[in-house]
Structure formats: C-alpha cells, structure tokens
Amino acid sequence: MPSSARRNRHCDGFTLVELLVVIAIIGVLIALLLPAVQQARESARRITCTNKLKQLGIAMHNYHDVHLQFAPGAITGHNTCKNTTTPMDGVNSECNKTFAPWTVLILPFVEQGNLHAKFNFSKIFTPFSTSCSTPNKALQFQPLELYQCPSDPNSGSDVPTLNYMACQGGGSPGTFNAQLHVACSGTSSPTRYFFTNGMFYNNSETRFADVTDGTTNTFMIGETKYHFLLGSHPSIPKRQTSWASGQLVNSVYATPITMTAAANPINSTEAMPQIHQLPEMTSTFGSWHPGGAMFTHGDASVHFVSENVDLGTFRSMGRRSDGGPTGTL
User: Is 138 domain-assigned?
Assistant: First the structure.
C-alpha cells in the first residue's frame, strides 16, 4: 500500500481506543475541577453572607443612635416567660399581644423604609402562618432576601426564611434560672428556651452601657439553619414561621422565633426542616457553611466561629455582662 494511502487512512478520524482515552481524560479533569468550582462558589456565598451580617450590625448601631437603645428582640405584652409550663398570666391565645420583632424594627436602617411603612405596628405580628389573621400577615410571610444566607437551600425561594438570629444570651439549656434564661413548654410540644442575659430578649432595652463585657466580646447576631419553617406540626399542616414572626410568650407554645441562645455547640444538630425543631431553633446557632457559623459582634464586626470552639467560651460570648473569659474564637 502506498505511503500516501496509509497517511490518509490515519487522518480519517479517531479510533475507538483514542476516543475512550480522551473521554477518560476529560472525566478526570472535571473531577479535579469540580471541588475547586464548588469551593469558589461557597467562598462567594460566604462573602455575601458576611456583608449581610455587617449590614445588620451597622443597622443595629444606627437604631441605637436614634432610639438610644438597641432594638428589642421582640415586643410583646409580657415581660418574660415563667420557668413553668404555665406562661405569665396563664393566657393561651397564640395571637394575643405579639408585636414586632427586631427584624422588622430595623428595616428603615437597612434601606427598607418603604416596607417598614407598610406594617401596622399597633396590630399583631402573627408567630405562625396558620394563625392570627392580621393586617400584617401578608407582609410577614413574603420572603426578604436580606435575611437569607445564600448557602441555605431555600435562599431565593418563596419561603420566608430567617437565617440571622439575634443572640438572646448564653449558658446551659438544662439549667433554669429566672435571671439567666427560662423555658416554657407545652405538654405536646418540645421545650423552647428563653434567655435574658444576652443583648436581645423579649422587650429588651439594651444600651451600649449595659454590655459591660465589651461589644467586641459579645455576640449580637448569629447564623441559624434550624427552623420551624418547612415542616409540619402533627396536627397543623405547613405551619411556618418567618423572618417577621412575632415572639410568642403567652401560650404553652411559647417561642422566641427571631432569637437564639449560645447554649449548644454550633452545628451540633442536623438541620431537619421537616420535623418540629423548636428546641434547636432557640438554643443552637448553625450555618450552611462548612465548619462553623458567622457572628456579628456588638461592635458590628463579623467573625467566623468554628464549630469546635470551646463551649464555655462560646456561651460566655453570648452573655452581655458575665465578666467571663472570652479568649480568641
């Protein structure tokens, strides 16, 4: 066979073996690149999340400048919740005396003045999507991107997610002390935790002067991935909370819906939105970022805190004036 014919035959295309080799090489390259791409995307999401937490911290400071105190964790008709299964005044109505949470009160300071103006602050802010038909309800259960971490699977959806919780204190969830924290629980519901030794709690009026541990050493806002959001109560389908839910303190279902305590280790429980996850929602910070969660401190600085941080130090950071050691997180 002439040499020119042999050359033409080899130029006709790839052999099967050559094609398989090319496919294998491409597969290896994709396998090598995919983790790097995912890591770059997560890094970008973390930067976005950090910026949101920083914005919320500055908004809290601006609120303080105007009102001479930080926004209350939530406004209600009760001072706190008793350390019994019977809430203060023994009122069982879920709708009674539940008003605006901090997430709504600071809206004018995060360039959401138009939304803030639409709320009626003399009316109830319903805790759950299945209760309390009020003038504010439609606004409460519309999603607000400001309060959504982009790493949360529900971010960008029509779910009114809240990924940023005000810190209501710190300590062991198993020790009840009326000055530190209180738990209210119903006979058919898991325990929820009410702390009052942090910067935010029910009807709080915290000022800079009250944070004697120093704002740098005290948590103001932290991330959460624990919700009573997508799941369903056994007897109430699709019962949801939102970024604008009022704090419920006057029934056996009492829950500080927009606040969490530095009680359990970060990410110490798996996020399972299809179940009743109220104990974790009120006592555990966590995030969709690997290895820990981000926190806005009282000075409005934002820091990533490892899930392996010393628990005593972590709980001390949740308290505003315990004088305890903080060390380096």
Answer: yes
